[in-house]
Every structure is written in C-alpha cells, then in structure tokens.
Design brief:
With 212 residues, the chain is mainly α. Helices cover 67% and strands 0% of the residues. The chain is elongated.
C-alpha cells in the first residue's frame, strides 16, 4: 500500500476512535451500497441485508479501538459483516459450490469455438469473437449504459459468484482476502470469478450487438 494511502487510513482510524461523526458518516456512505450487495448473497431478503449492514456498523463503532491494523480497514469491515451474516443463520454453502458450478455449464457457448479437427482448434469462429467495447466519442455516453447493464447482470449472478466478483472487481480485494472472507479455496475463487465475469461480459456483448 502506498505511503499516502497508509497515512490516509491511519488518519481515518484515528478520527473514528476520536468519535468524529463526519468521518464515520463518510465511511458509511462509501461502503454501504457495496456492503448491501455482498450481504444480500448471504441472506434471503433485502431487509435482512440491511439489518446485517446496520449491525456491522454498530460492531465497527464498538470495535474500532481494538482494530490492530493487521489488515486494511476495508478488509476488517467486510470480515465483520460476513461473520454477522453467517451468524444470522445462513446455511453454509462451501460444499455445494462445486456442485453448482458443475451444473451451470461452460461460461461461453462451446459452439463459438473451432472444433478439434479445424486448422485453428479452440480459436473463435468467424463472427463469434467477443464484440469490442466502443472507443468512439459516443463511448462515454454508451459507457453509462454499459455500467447499468453490468450492474443488472451482476445482480442476476448466483450469490457466491456475485460475492466474488463484487469483492474482486468492485472492492478491489486480493484473491487471498476473498478466500479468507468467504472461506473458499483459491481454485474455487478463481472459477467463481471467471464464471461471474464471463456472464457479465456476455450480457455486455449481447447489448452491444443489439445497439449495432
């Protein structure tokens, strides 16, 4: 972590310990939307997810003096939230993950690739390669539409795939952090991330084809 980032987090932690209400409000505003999305993967309703997040913030206020800084503040925050979500009676899904993945099929339709006897086996077939994202002057406007499509598709993912994609691509957590938070293996994390990203990518491709 860069020194400026470390200094910024150190200052934030000090402000929270001093009871700085504005610092706490800023932290809540920054992380609550993502916390709700992640919590929703553990509980059955949005209302329960809101309760989990509320309990998390209370726990943060009560525990900030005991935070030792062995991990990033954000990692500590989400660790608390995940533990609270589990304590609400969510069934453990670790052993079911591989079964769900096996039943979900490939991330990309195999028919889009050249067959074994082809000159270039495994390569994209003609007209089947992924549609490139636009880099035209209109790209910024279309970019907002693509973000809406991506968020909508993200919400459709199976809970554990959504959690992994959110933590890796939205929160920017490292693979090891995600594995610790979700109590999954590194291999399982990679598969879940790949499948989740592929589903979102496919939705964006389909949208761009429709626009074209």
């Amino acid at each position: 972590m860069a020194s400026s980032a470390v200094e910024g987090e150190t200052g934030l932690i000090a402000a929270l310990r001093a009871g700085d209400e504005s610092a706490f409000t800023a932290l809540v505003d920054l992380h609550t939307p993502t916390m709700l999305r992640v919590a929703r993967g553990y509980v059955s309703t949005h209302e329960l997810a809101e309760e989990v997040v509320q309990e998390t913030w209370i726990a943060v206020l009560r525990g900030i003096d005991r935070f030792e800084g062995r991990s990033a503040l954000r990692t500590w925050l989400f660790t608390i939230m995940v533990n609270i979500a589990k304590a609400r009676g969510v069934k453990e899904r670790r052993h079911a993950d591989l079964q769900v993945l096996a039943a979900s099929g490939g991330t990309v339709d195999p028919a889009r690739f050249r067959e074994a006897g082809d000159r270039w086996p495994g390569h994209w077939k003609e007209h089947e390669a992924p549609v490139p994202f636009p880099d035209t002057p209109e790209g910024s406007v279309l970019g907002e539409e693509l973000m809406t499509v991506a968020r909508r598709e993200l919400d459709k993912l199976p809970p554990r795939q959504r959690e992994v994609v959110m933590m890796r691509d939205v929160l920017g957590l490292e693979s090891a952090e995600v594995c610790d938070l979700l109590e999954i293996s590194a291999a399982n994390q990679r598969v879940l991330l790949h499948r989740g990203r592929a589903a979102v990518r496919q939705a964006l491709e389909d949208y761009l084809k429709e626009k074209a």
